[in-house]
Design a protein that fits this description.
Structural class: alpha+beta
Strand content: 25-35%
Distance between the termini: 63 Å
Helix content: 25-40%
Radius of gyration: 25 Å
Shape: flat
Largest sheet: 14 strands, mixed
């Protein structure tokens, strides 16, 4: 098994070749295969690429500024947590959305020399941009996202951790006075390190959740949100114009659904509340759930969608634990346990009520 240093050297070589001006379709195919071969490959490649692009932004933003001078406060945001922008992930499928821009490096540089630059950046970029007063971070902070069926853990610089569910996207901004995460879509589970000086705020549309030290999930569907608390307490608020308006105080076991029409809070046994966040282990747990609701949940994790064409089938109730991405096994269990007919149509699995044969009807 290759060491992390060896993997990083290969990633640097790929980046150098890609930027050499001699990149071909065969090279892209080979790179794709290498990236798909290991999570470690993808993490090394993304980290080196992020380091290079960050360096180019530093060069561009520093244009016209004399060496040793600090850029104007309006240009960058001062933060002691610069490392979160350059080392985005240490897990499965999260990626960082970076602001694009001109690379600005000399195309005449030899590939081997360029590869060395990439490796050096990976090791030293975070230590090379201090200006004495602190660290400077790109104002908007990094963006993390997962694909359909993806699951990823994103460590935050304060020690807190965010776990992203399928097809989700967040933006992270940590300052000396606040820790803020914006959930643009999907769902995330937060394990918040207590810090009374800096509240932890999750924005989701026109709602926000405020916590100091707790564990909870936030799921966003347009401007409606669902909050599940598994440890500690959080405050659910309506945000937007003016001061935030309180909606509910939630403690462990609470499941809150907040929409424009109102807020509904249910207090459940903790083990039932934990079922709502079972996706963190790759499973979906249903307790006497209608098949329509279960199918809607499964469809969040799979490109191959299940469609129910019969309302009597949608009204059936199911229970159990199912792997979220194994849609074929779920459908097979439905066939075996219920009178359901399954029809495969392109990218859809269509469920209808099975019609009994004349022999069965005569029994």
């Amino acid at each position: 098994m290759a060491s992390s240093v060896q993997i990083e050297e290969v990633a640097a070589a790929w980046l150098a070749k890609r930027d050499s001006g001699q990149w071909r379709d065969a090279d892209q195919t080979a790179l794709t295969l290498w990236l798909h071969a290991s999570t470690a490959h993808r993490v090394a490649f993304v980290r080196l690429e992020a380091a290079w692009q960050a360096a180019q932004r530093l060069r561009a933003l520093g244009a016209g500024t004399l060496p040793g001078e600090v850029p104007a406060p309006g240009d960058w945001r001062l933060s002691p947590f610069f490392d979160n922008t350059a080392a985005p992930v240490s897990a499965n499928d999260a990626t960082v959305e970076r602001i694009s821009g001109a690379r600005g490096h000399d195309r005449g540089t030899h590939a081997s020399g360029r590869a060395a630059v990439y490796r050096a950046l990976a090791a030293s970029l975070l230590l090379a941009v201090a200006f004495g007063a602190g660290w400077y971070v790109w104002p908007n902070g990094p963006i993390y996202r997962t694909p359909v069926g993806g699951l990823s853990s994103v460590p935050m610089p304060d020690g807190s951790k965010v776990t992203l569910n399928t097809n989700s996207e967040i933006r992270v901004a940590v300052t000396e006075t606040e820790r803020r995460v914006t959930l643009d879509k999907g769902e995330a589970f937060f394990e918040v390190v207590k810090d009374p000086r800096r509240p932890f705020v999750v924005n989701a549309g026109n709602k926000q959740v405020v916590a100091l030290g707790t564990k909870f999930s936030v799921r966003r569907d347009a401007d409606a949100v669902r909050v599940v608390v598994t440890e500690g307490r959080v405050r659910l608020e309506r945000s937007g114009v003016g001061a935030p308006a309180p909606l509910a105080q939630l403690s462990a076991g609470a499941v809150a659904r907040a929409a424009d029409a109102g807020t509904l809070v249910q207090v459940k046994p903790l083990d039932e509340a934990e079922d709502y966040v079972s996706w963190r282990s790759g499973f979906l747990i249903f307790r006497d759930t209608t098949l329509g609701e279960a199918v809607a949940e499964f469809n969040r994790y799979n490109m191959h969608k299940i469609v129910i064409e019969d309302p009597t089938v949608a009204a059936m109730h199911v229970g159990g634990s199912f792997r979220s991405t194994n849609v074929d096994a779920f459908v097979r269990l439905l066939q075996e346990g219920f009178q359901i007919h399954v029809d495969q149509r392109d990218e859809q699995i269509v469920l209808t009520k099975q019609i009994a044969s004349p022999t069965e009807m005569a029994r």
